[in-house]
Amino acid sequence: MLARSALVALLTLDTADALGLGGNRRQLLKLGSAAGLLGGGVERLAGRGAATAAAPTAAAPTATGATNSVVRVVDGIRQKRLGGTDIIVSEMGLGTQRWGSADFNGPDEALCHQLLDRAVLRSGINLVDTAEQYPIPSDRGRPEGDTERIIGNWIKKEAGRRQKLVIASKITGGRNINRRTIEADLRGSLERLGTDYLDVYMLHWPARYRPQSWLGFGFRGS
């Protein structure tokens, strides 16, 4: 399981294309594995697991195409190609930071599943953004990692649901990032989500100790 999913992208959408990581993800995975890229500065997009159901809408797109091209429109929501890969991702996504959280108004598992039903099964959203650190805030009864578990329980309800999603998850950033922790934390995310691959894997808040007052400084006008 892990071998198919460990070489995941620690990339932004623009970086993937700039580095020429187009093409089929299984081909990229083979190249990355042969080169021993895990533990290097840039990881690769993971290959998809075994398909268990057809795509939710229309015919499957071709493996390659123009970066950021609109492949289809579902319920008014545009779905675009991620870089030059075969990943087709909706322009809108579901953020899950407070799913199952200790917040007074944090949605419980039942409500989270309703949100997934509405967005994924009855509309054109397929992007779900999560992290090993979610939910925030957490407590002993609702520990970190529970959000991925909630998503995984929704996936288990029906065959083929995993293929309807583009899942982006994150490893908690900081000085703890190395080959061993990437493998271990990725394995944990995969187990909680009940899948053998992620579509995108990122560093979560990598500049962890930078004063937040600096954020946005580079965007100020002259």
- Low-pLDDT stretches are 1-59, 217-222
| Strand-pairing-aware structural class | alpha/beta
Strand order of the largest sheet: 4-5-6-7
Global shape: globular
Number of strands: 7
Task: Find the CATH superfamily.
Answer: NADP-dependent oxidoreductase domain
Specify the CATH architecture. Answer: Alpha-Beta Barrel
The number of distinct structural domains comes to 1
- Backbone CA Rg: 17 Å
CATH class: Alpha Beta
Please bin the fraction of helical residues.
Answer: 25-40%
| Largest sheet composition | 4 strands, parallel
CATH fold node name = TIM Barrel
Report on the structure:
- The protein is α/β, with parallel strands linked by helices.
- The chain has one domain (2-50, 64-207): TIM Barrel (Alpha-Beta Barrel).
- The protein has 6 helices and 7 strands, in the order αααββββαβαβαβ.
- A 4-stranded parallel beta sheet has the order 4-5-6-7, with helices on one face.
- Helix 5 (146-156) packs across helix 6.
- The longest helix is centred in the C-terminal third of the chain and has 15 residues, at 179-193.
- The chain starts with a helix and ends in an 18-residue tail after the last strand.
- The relative contact order is 0.16.
- Residues 1-59 and 217-222 have low confidence and may be disordered.
